[in-house]
Amino acid sequence: MDLPHGALVNYIFPNNEIVWWSILIVIYPYITGLIAGAFVVSGLSHVFKIKEFKPIANFALIAAFSFGLFAAVPLLFHLGQPQRAFEIYFTPHLTSAMSIFGYIYSSYLILLMLEIWLIYRPYFIQQANSTTGLQRKIWYILTLGVTTYHQDSAKIDQKLILFLAGIGIPWAFVLHGYVGFVFGSVKAIAWWASPLQPVIFLLSAIVSGMAMLMVMYTFVKWRSKAPYDYPLVKKFTAFLWGIFILAFVLEILEVLFARYESGHHWAIIEPLLNGPLFGSYVITQVLVLSVIPVILLGYVTLSNSKDKNMLHLANLGSFMLVLQVLFMRFNVVVGGQLISKSERGFVDYHWEIFGGEGVLVSATILAAPFVTFYLVSRFIPIFENPAQR
Amino acid sequence: MKKIAADFDELDSVSRRKFLQYAMSGAATILMVQMSGAAATQGRGKGWKQMSTKHQYAYVIDINKCIGWGGCVRACGQENDVPEGVFRTWIERYVLTEDGVYVDSPKGGSEGFEPVSAEIQKKVKRSFFVPKMCNHCENPPCVQVCPVGATYKSPEGFVLVDHDYCLGCAYCVQACPYGARFINTEKHVSDKCTWCYHRVKKGKQPACVEACPTGARIFGDLMDPESDVSQIFNDSQWMVLKPDMYTSPMCFYVELPREVV
Fold first, then answer.
1. Are the Cβ atoms of A79 and B169 closer than 8 angstroms?
2. Of these four, A188, A259, A335, B120, which has the most CB atoms within 10 Å of its CB?
């Protein structure tokens, strides 16, 4: 392996032997990204009136909420002193890029809950009025005590929903751009330090959220043996394709720029990309999980087909993008820490399976939003418009 | 061994107040929550005194004098109860050869160094030892990134960690360009060299300085013109590590070769 700074042996600083931010911190920006992406889809329908997306606007919102509930959980599990986590709310140190995360994340979650409540309010009322016993009590609590619903209520609700969806889009962008900022502003880690990082994180967030929605939509329709909405899939693929091209171009530009500049930055990054990250970044993230989806989704978008083959190709491309963003998060979060600050060596990353920050815990946290989504979808309609019932 | 004039007060309350000032001047939207935090932290700081500006401490490392014995690393480990595998200070051995640079630091240099291989010995141009530690930067990125202000800079120049307040998020570990920070695997909080703050405030030297048999490690007050650090700072050619990081380290190296990162 080539080493930077004319190093003859792999030398890492004694305190750099441990990758302090491991797989849990990989799934933290990943889940956060899924929220932003899913929310954008609902926003495209509610705010930008993309009519093809209307059938999945609420579905996207429920998905965003399910992801949102668990976005901070990996952070909590990662903290050495999780019982002090609330100090970030009570005494945030405002020079820290991380200090405001609690506020941005919580306010976003509240916004999501509020929007979902307004959309499903008529359904809660209807259920509260048509059930009895314990069920009625639960539905009644969800109505917050208001069990009548008029045309006027609907009008006001619609305005509020539009307003929340409107401010939700920039807020979702802030949430995820912010996560990119947390990494991009660390000058000590060359692979992170880039002003493009917030933009790249944001775009890849939208990609991951949209791609995940496509896969979830197809799965739910397949499981429930419901017909697929091909015009929706087609339009959705076109959007996903376009946004991914933007994300991918920026990801590559960042590296190409460093390469062309050939400065200190590249002196450290080049051996990283040719060494420890060659398999997971160059081959997997770029060549397999980026180039192939661009071709697949491009074909679906540009061809005239609106059949099951198109659906399969769109899902294959989307599934690859779901993985692409997961790899991207890994390659950024863990990859950055593989460069020792000695600048003369690379750290070995050891996969932990059963530990507190292991694969098992991470996979469980990553699975939790899907279980939540399933449970929620058992009780409320995710594809119908509750106001029209 | 020189005694240190150290008539300064406990620092934690000062940093907490300063931190609260930052916090209170922040976004209006979070004012209410800030105030509840203020009440909580003011309670913690009760009885502590105003900040001192009488001292500005600095650390000097003379590369020509370090023999790589490792007593400083051992002394630090014992004095500060440093867990195995992580280091508040360590020594690196640099061997410059015709083919490139050989660097190592087995067990942080705590047990000294075995000779390098015969193959490398044949090509040696120069070799030397470089002690490393927290640089107690004037512009510390670790302090900047701490989300709750658990790590802070004292008026006398110590960068410290409040172990009762640290979340253990490791953001400061990432932000330090020098690899000086680690997560204490026993306490589950961020940890690093304190320049033996607990000793210095009693007028003693840091444990590593006291353990160094050759005087390669020098600690003192820049506000005292007679101190060794003042004289070296004024007279010698000194360098800091990674100057391009603009952290303004307060550890100064004498005769630092350019190969050192």
1. yes
2. A335
